[in-house]
Write a structure and sequence with these properties.
Elements: E1 13-19, H1 24-35, E2 44-47, H2 51-62, H3 64-72, H4 76-91, H5 95-106, E3 114-119, H6 122-139, E4 142-148, E5 165-168, H7 171-183, E6 190-193, H8 208-216, E7 226-231, H9 239-252, E8 256-263, H10 269-275, E9 281-286, H11 289-302, E10 307-310, E11 330-333, H12 339-350, H13 357-368, H14 379-386, E12 391-393, H15 398-410, H16 413-417, H17 438-452
Parallel strand pairs: 1-2, 1-3, 3-4, 4-5, 5-6, 7-8, 7-10, 8-9, 10-11, 11-12
Length: 455
């Protein structure tokens, strides 16, 4: 594989990663793609200096009313109008990003013939798409723009004019974006379905001893610690729910040990101060976004994480990792916030990686009534289905969620989920969407594009 990516080592090619610190998701995807680059390649990280993007993201994440307005603009006629205005706004605010790119090129000892820019945020992607031809002409350099969608969400703003390739996680999103591009009379571009890029560090196989440690966490016959990872969102969304859930689970069993991964900020600090005194909570704190991503991966390599409680953001795609891998913890998703998180859950439901809504509500009712799954009418069927699940959605309240987690553990559902092979359902024709090697697939697709001009 490394040899197949030697094209990235060409001195005539400059690789740039462009991302915006609007939530950690964009940085996580950038980091995953970065880790897939062969040794000897030194890409440049280009972070957005436009604080407007970050401010909007945090404001919408924290304030329910602003969030409802934002969601209104993500559907129907409103989405057409809002997208057109936002796209115009982004493509007419290119002065700063143009200066940054020119400075990067002028500081090179050897001027490259080609520049490959990988953008993991639509804001920067639109801005670069608007100035790409200008850079081509003025600097006599061929600029290629690759865009990676960070959710399986066909939001129109992810159709970027000027992009050479746009990677999306599913055929469904590809079809909807192509339909929009045609309807909006935008310049055509290549949309490529490629499995979501999860970190190569997380897809390494556990040895038999470490795999047994993960299995023991879900056994009622052992006293092994149940290691639970909890990555805190940058805007600290839903932290009261999560803190209550942590306390309630520990009251159920002292076997639970929680690993909190967070950046210190105005939003997170009050909650971190509250958690730090709890002996059943281990704090992994960073001051920079990149450090948070690194801390998260280090915890998975240092500890055998059994469960992860998280938002269904880009973290949902860790469901593509088998439980036999380092990053193969069972995923417990909080209530989705925003359209993209609901879309991510829909991706998992389509591929049978989590229970569908009817199945999930049935499980919630069984747990609420303390019913034995073995005595349930479809108990045997549920056990078979659980062997295909990589995660589940939690009920809306912390008390109900704590009870549901404990019930699922006692009923052996979690233990059954460890058998998941992340294989496509017999009726699933989109098998390429379920690979855990999305990073490799993306770089190979880029190679094919550079060699032939198309995929």
């Amino acid at each position: 594989m490394a040899q197949a990516l030697d094209y990235l080592k060409e001195k005539s090619l400059l690789l740039i990663f462009a991302y915006a610190p609007a939530g950690l998701g964009h940085l996580r995807v950038t980091d995953a793609l970065y880790e897939g680059v062969p040794s000897g390649v030194t890409p440049i990280l280009l972070g957005s200096q436009d604080e407007t993007i970050t401010a909007i993201h945090r404001f919408v994440s924290v304030h329910p009313f602003a969030r409802s307005i934002f969601e209104w603009g993500q559907s129907g006629l409103a989405q057409d109008i809002v997208t057109a205005i936002y796209r115009w706004y982004l493509r007419h605010r290119t002065g700063l990003i143009y200066k940054q790119l020119v400075t990067i090129l002028e500081q090179r000892l050897e001027t490259p013939n080609e520049v490959l820019i990988v953008a993991t945020h639509f804001g920067l992607a639109h801005q670069i798409g608007a100035i790409k031809e200008k850079l081509n002409k003025e600097k006599n350099i061929k600029v290629h723009l690759i865009v990676q969608n960070t959710d399986d969400s066909p939001q129109y703003i992810w159709y970027v004019e000027g992009a050479d390739l746009i990677f999306v996680p599913s055929e469904q999103t590809k079809k909807k974006l192509l339909k929009y591009g045609k309807k909006a009379k935008l310049k055509p571009t290549q949309l490529v379905v490629s499995a979501y890029p999860v970190s190569p560090k997380l897809v390494k196989t556990l040895n038999s001893q470490k795999l047994q440690i993960r299995k023991d966490q879900f056994s009622t016959k052992h006293n092994a610690k149940i290691h639970v990872a909890f990555p805190v969102s940058g805007a600290a969304v839903g932290m009261k729910f999560f803190i209550n859930l942590i306390d309630l689970l520990y009251r159920r069993s002292p076997r639970f040990l929680f690993h909190i991964i967070s950046k210190t900020s105005f939003y997170t600090l009050p909650y971190l101060n509250e958690l730090i005194s709890r002996p059943y909570v281990k704090m992994h704190i960073a001051t920079q976004d990149k450090e948070v991503v690194d801390q998260y991966e280090e915890i998975y390599q240092q500890k055998i994480i059994g469960l992860e409680i998280t938002k269904p953001s880009e973290q949902a795609f860790k469901a593509l990792i088998k439980p036999t891998k380092i990053g193969g913890s069972l995923l417990l998703f909080a209530e989705p916030v925003g359209r993209q998180e609901r879309d991510n859950l829909n991706f998992l439901i389509r591929h049978h990686l989590i229970p569908n809504r009817q199945e999930q509500q049935y499980l919630w009712r069984l747990a609420k009534n303390n019913k034995s799954i073995k005595l349930a009418k479809i108990g045997k069927k549920l056990f078979i289905m659980a062997s295909r699940w990589r995660g589940m959605v939690l009920p809306h309240h912390s008390e109900a969620s704590a009870h549901y987690i404990w019930w699922s553990w006692q009923q052996g559902i979690f233990a059954q989920m460890l058998h998941c092979l992340v294989e496509p359902h017999k009726d699933d024709i989109y098998q390429q969407e379920l690979s855990s090697n999305g990073v490799e697939e993306s770089w190979l697709a880029v190679k094919e594009y550079l060699q032939s001009g198309k995929i």
